[in-house]
Design brief:
There is one protein chain. With 297 residues, the chain is an alpha/beta fold. It folds into two domains: 126 residues, 3-Layer(aba) Sandwich (Rossmann fold), CATH 3.40.50.10860; 158 residues, NAD(P)-binding Rossmann-like Domain (Rossmann fold), CATH 3.40.50.720. The chain is built from ten helices and twelve strands. A six-stranded mixed beta sheet has the order 2-1-3-5-6-4. A six-stranded parallel beta sheet has the order 9-8-7-10-11-12, sandwiched between helices. Strand 11, helix 8 and strand 12 form a beta-alpha-beta unit. Helix 1 runs antiparallel to helix 10, helix 4 crosses helix 5 and helix 4 packs across helix 9. It is globular.
Length: 297
């Protein structure tokens, strides 16, 4: 990669950020496109977020991806936020247009493409459990409300009021008739919600067919942690999608696989999200397959 005075800089901010595969993925795509760009990781502590966004404009950085823990906090430093990002309440992509910083959220496209193409779920189950109630969870729940197959979503979080608030907000915005509940992440509730999946019209007492981990629990470097510790709550007809991609197999995935559960990590979601971000910055269709291969190699 040639770096010179005409190189356009893009990157990702987060805390921590050393584990990020985004530079590998985006730089592979940049090389495939044959453009004079470079993608860099920037570790930004929460107390330095405002300075980092100011620096983005001052240094002429064209675009930034935003990851944990900045997706919600960054919004107040932007000049414009897309309707989708506003509805979700989180931004994961920033475009620098000189005088204006614009915020977008590519989580919707990323998670739905990952489930359909990566996890091979052409039709999503009627009941889905989402673990977590932060920025990533908001995007995922919002995405699920746009899928007519999904009739019931349960949000599990250690702080119950936070889960309940998110459920109420998302239910109001749901385009289809989707029931959304917020509950605690305790053992008994997890067992009840993940119980053996049934068939027919979704009932709140019916087990889930899909569980999505939208928390950073288990992410590098704390790889020995899991938001769900009891493997017996999983049943073989369940599908697990863990949005974490570093490590490639989380403790949660190992626990689920020990019970015969098909489990997938966040690499596909990262690739599809990243492709959309690159398209926002460049105005050019991104080479998705190149990006997928880069993060999976």
């Amino acid at each position: 990669m040639k770096i010179d005075g005409n190189t356009t800089i893009v990157g990702v901010i987060g805390y921590p950020i050393a584990h990020s595969l985004s530079p590998r993925m985006h730089n592979a795509a940049i090389q495939a496109l044959g453009i004079n760009w470079c993608y860099l990781p920037f570790q930004v502590a929460p107390e330095n977020l405002e300075k980092a966004i100011e620096g983005m404009q001052g240094l002429g950085i064209r675009g930034l991806n935003v990851t944990v823990p900045h997706k919600q906090a960054v919004m107040r430093f932007l000049d414009w936020v897309s309707p989708e990002a506003s509805a979700i309440g989180a931004v994961n992509t920033i475009l620098n247009e000189g005088e204006r910083l614009s915020g977008y959220n590519t989580d919707v496209e990323g998670i739905l493409a990952a489930l359909r193409f990566g996890a091979d779920l052409e039709n999503l189950p009627e009941k889905v459990v989402v673990v977590g109630a932060g920025g990533a969870a908001r995007g995922i729940v919002y995405a699920l409300t746009t899928v007519t197959d999904v009739r019931h979503i349960t949000i599990l979080n250690r702080t119950i009021p936070k889960a309940e608030r998110l459920a109420a907000e998302m239910e109001k915005m749901a385009k289809e008739k989707t029931e959304i509940e917020g509950k605690g992440l305790d053992g008994e509730t997890v067992r009840d919600e993940l119980g053996e999946a049934g068939s027919g019209v979704c009932e709140t007492t019916q087990g889930a067919g899909l569980v999505i981990n939208a928390t950073p629990v288990g992410m590098y470097p704390k790889v020995d942690c899991s938001p769900i510790e009891d493997p017996s709550v999983f049943h073989p007809r369940l599908v697990l999608y863990d949005t974490i991609y570093s490590p490639e197999e989380t403790k949660l995935m190992r626990l689920a696989r020990s019970q015969g559960v098909k489990s997938f990590n966040g690499l596909d979601m990262l690739a599809y999200q990243g492709a959309r971000s690159l398209e926002i910055w460049t105005g050019t269709k991104a080479p998705v397959e190149v990006m997928r291969e880069a993060v999976m190699s």
